[in-house]
Amino acid sequence: MSAKNRVARWVRPDIRGLTAYPVPDASGLIKLDAMENPWVWPEGLRDAWAAQVRALDVNRYPDPQARTLTQRIREHDAIPDRYRVLLGNGSDEIIQMLALALGGSGHGVLAPEPSFVMYRMIATFCGMPYHGVPLCAESFALDEPAMVRAIEEHEPAIVYIAVPNNPTGNLMAGDAIERVIRAAPGLVVVDEAYTAFASRAHLELLDRHDNLLIMRTLSKLGLAGLRVGYLVGAPAWLDELEKVRLPYNVNVLSQAAAAFALENHSVLAEQTARIVAERARLAGALSEMPLTVWPSEANFLLVRPESADALQVHAGLRDAGILVKCLHGAHPLLSNCLRLTIGKPAENDALLEALAELLR
Ligand SMILES: *Cc1c(COP(=O)(O)O)cnc(C)c1O
């Protein structure tokens, strides 16, 4: 028996049919593909952080409750005591915990599309049915009647709504979100990965809906390498999810580094403000080019070349040393689209210059 034969016999066919999440090699390139904060910490702060790390005892398991970090997150986000906070190794792990806890009944995961691909991928890993409901073409608004119909038909265990949405960058209308929450028999998770860049957040909706949880992450704030995401909501839900959380899911270094970063949150806030200002500058300059530029409340812009081929523009940018995300083929509504993460001013200038050349 070869390993191949054993794999064919024992590994689930739906897993064998998948391809692993592709992460392109970005070495040597200006990296504008993954919604990372382009700024690092100032030198003095790095030294203070290194001193803290030096004092950590990595021979011991982490604090399973991550009490210090949880407290810093509570303070930073002004989370009321009546809600619980559950930490994950990135929000990706929280999406997995939700599938572990709510999957198995035959009821699945439902989300507007195009949106964050992990909702579908993790549903598949966990054997949960997945239902995508197209957003309104061009505006990318929630198609409320279609969402409500799909919810009534499928009775999903979990509905995800990313607000602002990735990869479209828009905020969904608040009243539409609330009507979808009311229509859902199961849990609704509003994913606020980009809330630091947005004009509206939804924590206060928790008081009005007993089937709502809010998911956030430190990734887009400038700490993607630490892998810290969190879920906020009523203890009744989070006490159950806590049971499927691996006891030491957030490691010692991440707990300490994230707590330290939040204690110095003015640095992150200043970086975020710079990204928002650059977003406006970049959107303005791009709107002068033969491109459709969608309004964004996140740290990226979705664009569509009017006459050039997005695949060729993507390749041309790469030749010019700039990595962006090509979304052509990811969803019909994204045909010929590119997603540009906001970088530092000089990186954005390089992007504008290369685009002007390619779209001439
Ligand atoms: C980037 C992103 C996340 C992030 O995940 P982490 O695992 O916390 O890095 C979650 N949701 C959306 C919509 C995202 O775009």
Q: What would you note in describing this structure?
A:
By secondary structure, this protein is of the alpha/beta class. Helices cover 42% and strands 15% of the residues. The chain contains 14 helices and 13 strands. It has helices spanning 3-10, 13-16, 43-54, 67-77, 90-102, 117-125, 144-154, 174-183, 219-223, 235-244, 252-263, 265-286, 310-319, 345-358; strands at 30-31, 84-88, 109-113, 130-134, 158-162, 187-191, 212-217, 229-233, 291-293, 300-305, 322-323, 325-326, 338-341. The strands form three sheets. A seven-stranded mixed sheet has the order 2-8-7-6-5-3-4, sandwiched between helices. It has a four-stranded antiparallel sheet with strand order 9-10-13-12, covered by helices on one side. Helix 8 links the parallel strand 5 and strand 6. Helix 12 packs parallel to helix 14 (345-358). The protein is globular and about 55 Å long. Pyridoxal-5'-phosphate binds next to helix 5.
Structure, briefly:
The chain is of the alpha/beta class and 360 residues long.
Give the helices and strands, then pairings:
Blueprint: H1 3-10, H2 13-16, E1 30-31, H3 43-54, H4 67-77, E2 84-88, H5 90-102, E3 109-113, H6 117-125, E4 130-134, H7 144-154, E5 158-162, H8 174-183, E6 187-191, E7 212-217, H9 219-223, E8 229-233, H10 235-244, H11 252-263, H12 265-286, E9 291-293, E10 300-305, H13 310-319, E11 322-323, E12 325-326, E13 338-341, H14 345-358
Parallel strand pairs: 1-11, 3-4, 3-5, 5-6, 6-7
Antiparallel strand pairs: 2-8, 7-8, 9-10, 10-13, 12-13
Helix pairs in contact: 4-11, 5-6, 5-10, 7-8, 12-14
Bound molecules: pyridoxal-5'-phosphate.
Pyridoxal-5'-phosphate binds next to helix 5.
